[in-house]
Design a protein that fits this description.
17 helices, 39% helix, seven-stranded mixed beta sheet, Spore Coat Polysaccharide Biosynthesis Protein SpsA, Chain A, alpha/beta, 17% strand
Length: 476
């Protein structure tokens, strides 16, 4: 039997992902230690990917390779992936990578156009019309028997678009007698690096029980790498779910609560009750000082309501200072917890953000674990209901939020106002004049702007995006 000669071919624009580099090094080391083969790594830099691939294949043929292993520079992969694909003994074997956009879809498709999905139940190989090149193993005889051009993209008139070079190649290979096979098992060993690393797990539709099991596994796995972790805790629905998921490892975690000093009294009591079962760390932030120095948080900030705008526009000093609400939340509700973890040298942060929140936490100096990332709100509430977990009273009263700052001027949720007027009338009476001051200032500026724009004929707005030529016409 001829010993395999593997040309690992990497088309690149010049900068590769760190996790890709680590995966490539591990693959080379693993192949050398576990399987007799000749292996070389070839890279080709250039801005036109199908040209890079053509050059790489020609170099592999000159090297007398038996196989080309394409690995794109934004992929991660287990070192076992090559051995697994080789063992299939098929001319064209590809991993089914996921795309790097939401909602996540798989790259491979059947001849009828339906997408091929990777799941817990999928195994073995499955014939496809096409797949991505991200991690793909191709015998060199396929290139020798498939007429050139191998990778030239084709135009699809019905879609008024071009098929990518991988689709074009796989269809040309099929015409030459070499259909592509998707390796479901190898596909579970790869990831696609984007804002985060996209894997087959994010593309399936798991059951609620599967999500719970994965969330526990994510927490336990992270704690194997760290002596202890900090759970960011507010008393809201995601927080109580996190605490329940951490119950069996509560000796290794601390619930870290940032008390803004403006929580409703019943919420303070609710959060502090968790100290009976968990280690609860309370860190305080100074909301009053923040409001005095930076201004009141707002969704809309007219320039005249900022310190710089007041100076430049000689605005009246009685105009309230308004500030970015996101920074306000970060400084009052997050920063004290981060400072605590730095002081205590805690290197693991566990948070309850979900992808639906469209907030992407990142903390310098710590590993971040988001076990609820793929949960929906229905998943969270279903978990709470099934396990009879107690929620703060406002959840049953029509306001599903922890309400960490009763006097927040940026949260303009009607359910909040209705709930406060009914169940917290004293606080609502105190909030009303502050909201009036903030949004009165906003309406003043919007009114002035609307009047001026009406004169110019711009007041009705438009969804039209200016063309490059139109935009260039505004240049001086």
């Amino acid at each position: 039997m001829t010993m395999p000669r593997i040309a690992v071919c990497v088309p690149t624009k010049g900068i590769v992902r760190g996790w890709f580099a680590s995966s490539l090094a591990e693959l080379v080391a693993y192949a050398a230690a576990h399987q007799p083969m000749a292996l070389t790594v070839m890279m080709q830099e250039g801005s036109i990917i199908h040209v890079n691939r053509e050059i790489l294949v020609n170099r592999a043929l000159d090297w007398q390779a038996t196989h080309v292993l394409f690995v794109d520079d934004d992929m991660t992969f287990s070192p076992r992936v090559l051995t697994l694909m080789l063992d299939r003994k098929q001319p064209v074997v590809a991993c089914n990578s996921t795309m790097r956009v939401l909602p996540i879809k798989f790259a491979a498709a059947r001849i009828d156009g339906s997408r091929i999905a990777v799941s817990d139940a999928s195994t073995g190989v499955e014939e496809a019309d096409y797949a991505g090149f991200g991690v793909s193993l191709i015998e060199t005889r396929v290139f020798q028997r498939t007429p050139k051009p191998w990778f030239l993209p084709t135009y699809l008139p019905e879609q008024q678009a071009y098929a990518s070079e991988d689709v074009a190649f796989y269809r040309r290979g099929r015409a030459a007698g070499f259909p592509v096979l998707i390796d479901h098992d190898a596909s579970k060993l790869i990831g696609h690096c984007g804002e985060h690393t996209y894997t087959w797990r994010q593309a399936e539709t798991p059951t609620a029980d599967t999500k719970v099991a994965r969330a526990r596994q994510a927490i336990e796995s992270a704690l194997q790498r760290h002596s202890r972790g900090a759970v960011l805790f507010s008393g809201g629905k995601e927080s109580v779910v996190l605490a329940a998921l951490c119950d069996n490892v509560r000796d290794k975690v601390e619930l870290v609560w940032c008390n803004t000093g403006a929580m409703f009294p019943h919420m303070e009591r609710f959060v502090r009750a968790y100290s009976e079962r968990y280690k609860l760390v309370e860190r305080r932030s100074d909301q009053a000082a923040r409001f005095r120095s930076a201004g009141l948080p707002s969704r809309i900030i007219p320039i005249v309501n900022t310190p710089l705008g007041r100076v430049q526009l000689k605005a009246h000093s009685n105009k309230p200072n308004l500030a970015d609400w996101t920074r306000c939340c970060s400084e009052l509700r997050l920063l004290p917890a981060i400072e605590y973890t730095h002081e205590q040298r805690i290197s693991l942060l566990i948070h309850g953000q979900r992808a639906q929140d469209q907030v992407f936490p990142a903390f310098l100096g710590a590993e971040v674990c988001g076990p609820l990332w793929d949960w929906t709100e229905a998943d969270v509430l279903g978990y709470i209901h099934e396990r009879a977990i107690l929620l703060p009273e406002q959840y049953a009263q029509g306001y599903a939020d922890s309400g960490e700052c009763w006097n927040c001027t940026s949260e303009i949720n009607p359910a909040r106002f209705k709930w406060m007027a009914t169940y917290q009338p004293e606080y609502y009476a105190r909030l009303q004049p502050v909201m009036a001051a903030v949004y009165g200032a906003v309406f003043d500026e919007l009114g002035a702007a609307t009047a001026a724009l009406q004169v110019a004929g711009f007041a009705n707005g438009t969804d039209k995006v200016p063309s490059p030529a139109e935009a260039e016409g505004c240049n001086v």
